[in-house]
Specification:
The chain is built from ten helices and nine strands. It has about 300 residues and is of the alpha/beta class. It has one domain: 3-Layer(aba) Sandwich (Rossmann fold). The strands form two sheets. A seven-stranded mixed β-sheet has the order 3-2-1-4-5-9-8, sandwiched between helices. The chain has a two-stranded antiparallel sheet with strand order 6-7. Helix 3 links the parallel strand 2 and strand 3. The N terminus and C terminus are likely disordered. The structure holds S-adenosylmethionine. S-adenosylmethionine binds next to helix 1.
């Protein structure tokens, strides 16, 4: 298991987009993976790309990147950023990931990236099967329950914290649901549906021929499963003493994993090498905006 010491990685600024999206841990972790992957000569699909920051990172080394999101507001920000940076090898499209025809028309990809997405769809089995038909290699990041034997049990946790049945999955309301920063943050942080274990995701992708996988780790620093379980359950039990109302909850964490058909994995470099691959335009933007200085 490779541990990514993300504490050493500068945060992405988010300010590179015309929309003011402050840096968040979600972006930091996924940004690390975006620069760590060796994408030379590859065609990449970024599903649920939001404002496209990771797509733009990946476009630094990939041949071509297509970013898809069903919110018009974010797709337009992503497009403006690509224009601003004069990136010709990245395209942003508005589209629903559950629309089979729309996705199939995009053709085949060397890698499909779906970060912060799986736990948001109400039917992860269909969504995953569809994603599997587009590529031989998937990079997934999702919210997962921290439970023992997660690799061998196929369960999905319906997080009671996510009271809403993901407004982002209702296309018509996708934009209206996220008016204003507060709402947006609320929805981004609290919406969710099924949170599958790695065992559940494996069971689904195996049916589609993806027999191999690699776990990169949990949380901001890509820590190992046992470290994550220890710290998550430790703090959960501690909170339980103070709050009985959370007794029906279990801890969840973010997991990064790659699933692939034999010999089709994308190689991922060591973080020390990845750090040097942060695009110069983002470092310049961090300097200029004076934010995101957490190192
Ligand atoms: C939590 S954000 C993750 C953004 C980005 N991938 C990241 O890692 O920071 C999830 C994104 O998926 C998009 N999304 C959710 N359901 C979708 C769907 N059915 N079709 C297209 N995009 C969807 C949302 O609009 C949102 O921008």
């Amino acid at each position: 298991m490779e541990i990514f010491p993300l504490g050493q990685l500068r945060t992405v600024s988010g300010e590179v987009t015309p929309g003011n999206r402050v840096s968040r841990t979600l972006r930091i972790r996924n940004a690390a993976m975006a620069v760590a992957m060796d994408l030379k000569g590859k065609r990449v699909l970024d599903l649920g790309c939001a404002e496209g920051l990771h797509s733009l990172y990946m476009a630094e080394s990939a041949d071509e990147v297509v970013g898809v999101d069903h919110r018009e507001s974010v797709v337009s920000i992503a497009g403006k950023s690509a224009e601003m940076l004069e990136k010709k090898n990245v395209t942003f499209l508005r589209g629903d990931i559950r629309n089979t025809n729309f996705l199939k028309e995009l053709g085949r990809f060397d890698l499909v990236v779906a970060w912060g997405f799986l736990h948001r769809v109400s039917d992860p089995i269909s969504a995953l099967s569809l994603i599997c038909s587009l590529s031989d290699c998937l990079s997934l990041e999702w919210r997962t329950p921290i439970v023992p034997f997660a690799k061998s049990i196929s369960i999905a946790y319906h997080n009671p914290v996510a009271e809403k049945l993901d407004p982002m999955n209702i296309e018509e309301s996708a934009d209206s649901a996220v008016t204003g920063t507060d709402d947006e943050n609320k929805i981004e942080s609290s919406s969710g549906f099924w949170e599958p274990t790695i065992g559940a995701v494996r069971a689904i992708v195996r049916r589609n021929g993806f027999y191999d996988y690699k776990i990169f780790g949990y949380g901001d620093r890509f820590t190992s499963g046992s470290v994550t379980a220890f710290s998550k359950w430790g703090s959960h039990l501690y909170r339980l003493i103070a709050r009985r109302d959370i007794s029906h909850q279990i801890p969840v964490g973010r997991l990064h994993a790659m699933f692939f058909k034999k010999g089709k994995a994308v190689s991922v470099s060591k973080p020390s090498q990845a750090i040097s691959k942060i695009p110069a335009w983002d470092l310049a933007m961090i300097e200029k905006c004076g934010i995101g200085k957490r190192i």
